């Protein structure tokens, strides 16, 4: 009897695990550029690029929630990686201490990194867990945040901070429809 109950429990566990899907993968070293984006600003001019963004902040990637994207991107939310980020310092805008952001691109199930490119540059990579970066983000109509198309991927240091403070203090603003993130500190 005990053996039958144990087998039934084991069978139930196996069935329930089959319904679970993996949401993260490990990079295998291969990169594919899957989408060509046309920017309205010159993304190589960081004064313009910062001016386009709603938020600029120093953050540490606390967790990669999802980084697997379809082998054939569809232009939907399935093409986005999702990250939990701890805000270490706000440079432009005021976000709360812990946020969730998405980013275009991710990894195929086989570990191939899927990134975007433009006429001026290629996305250089995806944020990695426990690393600190300077992020640029756009607020979306639903209050969510999307990280910039092109991630600098340089390790954070004081020199990089000074560089981005200069970009923020001398940004070239771009007139576009802007939204407020649900992670904004002082929402009214």
What does this structure look like?
Strands 2-3-4-8-7 form a 5-stranded mixed barrel. Strands 1-6-5 form a 3-stranded mixed β-sheet, with no helix packed on it. A hairpin with a 5-residue loop joins strand 3 (80-92) and strand 4 (98-104). It contains 3 helices and 8 strands, in the order αβαβββββββα. Mean pLDDT is 85; it is low at 3-20. The protein has 188 residues and is of the alpha+beta class.
- Secondary-structure element order, N to C: HEHEEEEEEEH
- Order of strands across the main sheet: 2-3-4-8-7
User: What is the terminal-to-terminal distance?
Assistant: 62 Å
Q: In terms of quaternary structure, what is this?
A: single chain
Compute the gyration radius: what is it? Answer: 20 Å
Secondary-structure map with pairings?
Layout: H1 2-18, E1 31-36, H2 46-52, E2 55-66, E3 80-92, E4 98-104, E5 106-107, E6 113-117, E7 132-139, E8 145-147, H3 158-169
Parallel strand pairs: 1-6, 4-8
Antiparallel strand pairs: 2-3, 2-7, 3-4, 5-6, 7-8
Helix pairs in contact: 2-3
Give a nutshell description of this structure.
With 188 residues, the protein is α+β, with helices and mostly antiparallel strands. The chain has three helices and eight strands, in the order αβαβββββββα. Helix content is 19%, strand content 30%.
Keyword list:
single chain; alpha+beta; 8 strands; globular; disordered N terminus
């Amino acid at each position: 009897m005990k053996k039958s109950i144990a087998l039934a429990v084991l069978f139930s566990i196996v069935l329930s695990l089959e319904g679970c899907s993996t949401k993260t993968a490990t990079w295998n070293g291969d990169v594919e550029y899957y989408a060509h984006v046309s920017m309205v600003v010159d993304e190589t001019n960081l004064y313009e690029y910062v001016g386009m963004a709603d938020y600029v902040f120093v953050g540490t990637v606390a967790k990669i929630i999802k980084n697997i994207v379809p082998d054939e991107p569809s232009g939907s939310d399935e093409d986005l990686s999702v990250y939990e980020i701890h805000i270490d310092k706000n440079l432009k805008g005021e976000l709360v201490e812990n946020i969730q952001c998405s980013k275009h691109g991710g990894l195929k199930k086989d570990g191939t990194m899927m990134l975007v490119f433009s006429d001026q540059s290629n996305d250089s990579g995806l944020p990695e867990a426990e690393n600190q970066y300077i992020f640029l983000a756009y607020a979306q109509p639903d209050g969510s945040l999307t990280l910039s198309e092109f991630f600098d991927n340089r390790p954070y240091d004081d020199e990089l901070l000074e560089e981005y403070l200069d970009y923020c203090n001398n940004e070239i603003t771009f007139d576009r429809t802007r939204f407020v993130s649900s992670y904004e500190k002082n929402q009214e």
